[in-house]
Amino acid sequence: MTDQPTKQKLWGGRFTGKTDPLMHAFNQSLKYDQRMHAADIRGSIAYAKALRRVGLLTEEEEVKMTQGLETVGREWATGQFQPAADDEDIHTANERRLSELIGSLGGKLHTGRSRNDQVATDMRLWLLGEVDDIESSLINLVRIMVERADKERDILLPGYTHLQRGQPIRWSHFLLSHAFSFRNDLERLQQLIPRISVLPLGSGALAGNPFSIDREFLAKELGFASLAENSMWGVGDRDFIVEFLMWSSLTMTHMSRLAEDLIIYSTAEFGFVTLSDAYSTGSSMMPQKKNPDSLELLRGKSGRIFGDMAGFMMTLKGLPSTYNKDLQEDKEPLFDTVDNISASLKIAEGVIATMEVHGEKMQQALTMDVLATDLADYLVRKGVPFRETHHVSGRAVALAEARKCQLNGLSVQDYKGLHEKFGDDVLEVFDFEASVERRSSIGGPSRKTLDRQIAVLRAALGQK
User: Fold this and answer.
1) Which of 83, 242, 379, 413 is 20 to 30 Å from 139 by CA-CA measure?
2) How far apart are CA 50 and CA 206, in angstroms?
3) What gap in Å lies between CA 239 and CA 200, rounded to an integer?
4) In degrees rounded to 5, what are phi and psi of residue 164?
5) Strand ranges inside 214-258, DSSP E
6) C-alpha distances in angstroms, 386 versus 220, 372, 440, 444?
7) Neighbours of 265 (CB within 10 A)
8) For 439-460, what is the mean pLDDT?
9) pTM for this entry
10) Radius of gyration of the chain from Cα atoms?
11) pLDDT category of residue 283 using cuts at 50, 70 and 90
């Protein structure tokens, strides 16, 4: 006697043997794709309306089906939904529960619809909602950086290349350098949204819908900006996930670089910033420690998110056309990335908003050697070629090192001995504020150019 087919599975009619319990667990995705329950319900309600519009449901059946779906949605929202052992995924779970509530009418919902176009629709709907929150968090992060930069523009510190002191800049200039990276991330995210907002529903398993379903109605009903023009592409495309993972990887790379700067600046050796206790932790052994764990985790999360992206790219690269079960592996990296980048943006905003900035420590880090380029520029303004002035300035640095003094510790006569073009006003070069203000071309750290940078960023955020 053969085993009875598994009727609860949407594909059960073809099979006479039972599924191996291990295979059932291996195949099941409900434990993680249930987070798309609201998107699945929303898509099903819209599809029920489309079925009624082509006469496959009566008005009464549509109302009953919609009410049943809304009940299922409320059960999920209130934690009352009870998964069954045979529920493979969120789609089968919802349809099974719908049929329990409204009887055999629930079986009409899947008319002309495949889980292939259903899951692609759910994921796009779900991700669009998450992207709204991520976009808001990114805007808030940039906004807090801009506001701090506006208020703290008087603070000067060394700017670094190769982690060596280079030239004096404003603290605000440093903050805005990172804010502009996040501004570009915001632009890229906004450019990605239309490519997420593409409706696959109505594509069927791969060859389209045989019942003349109005897909333009579905797109409007669900708020999609456009619809998949090719059904095979519609069910098999996951570029929107790849793009989001790539976007997240780059955004978190920018986050990691900001975190690294602030970790260094928060060390006792620098002492430029102190993180709030709310974003720091201690040591289980060393009672004096205050660790920048928030920043270290932000730096670490960047590798995790890049790994999500790289892993899914390896899954995707070898697949034949349309839907393959490998695509079930798109959800966990996407969900993990969304969770971690959402949290990271909020944590970063909190860190920036609450950290204490020590302007006096930054000022103390400014030594006269960071004005060596200004010394070379002094001679340039006297008509000397820069390559020659660079060499002369280097000789001045060497002389000061030999005498164990700062550049402003050399006398006017010392400078005149280095080059005939040095005048009595050469010591006026050694003014950090004046140095910063001389860099007034667009993009520089002067007050005037900071005003422009802040205006550009506020415009990108929709502020005045």
Assistant:
1) 242
2) 19
3) 13
4) -115, 145
5) 226-227
6) 63, 12, 19, 20
7) 25
8) 97
9) 0.92
10) 31
11) confident
Q: What is the pLDDT of residues 88-124, one digit of tens each?
A: 999 999 999 999 999 999 999 999 999 999 999 999 9
Averaged pLDDT for residues 154-180: 97
Whats the size of the chain, residue-wise?
A: 464
- Is 266 marked active-site? no
The amino acid sitting at 140 is: N
Cα separation, 128 vs 164, in Å, equals: 43
pLDDT tens for each residue of 124-144: 999 999 999 999 999 999 999
Helix (H) or strand (E) holding 166: strand 164-170
Cα(208)–Cα(112) distance, rounded to whole angstroms?
8
Query: How high is the pLDDT of residue 14?
Result: 53
Count how many Cα atoms sit within 13 Å of the Cα of residue 359 in the half-sphere of its side chain: 11
Q: Which of 136, 212, 276, 283 is catalytic?
A: 283
For residue 31, the surrounding DSSP H or E stretch is: helix 30-33
Residue 162 bears catalytic tag: yes
In this structure, which amino acid lies at residue 226?
S
Element (H, E) at 160: strand 156-161
Q: Report d(CA 119, CA 305) in Å as an integer.
A: 23
**Reduced to 3 states, what is the DSSP secondary structure of residue 410?**
coil
Residue whose token pair is 């993680």:
32
Q: Report residue 235 as tokens.
A: 């069910």
Quickly list DSSP for 184-228: HHHHHHHHHHHHH-EE-TT-TTTT--TT---HHHHHHHHT-SEE-
Angle at 230 between CA 227 and CA 232, to 5 degrees: 120
3-state secondary structure of 229: coil
DSSP string of 324-368, one letter each residue: -GGGGGGHHHHHHHHHHHHHHHHHHHHHHHH-EE-HHHHHHT--G
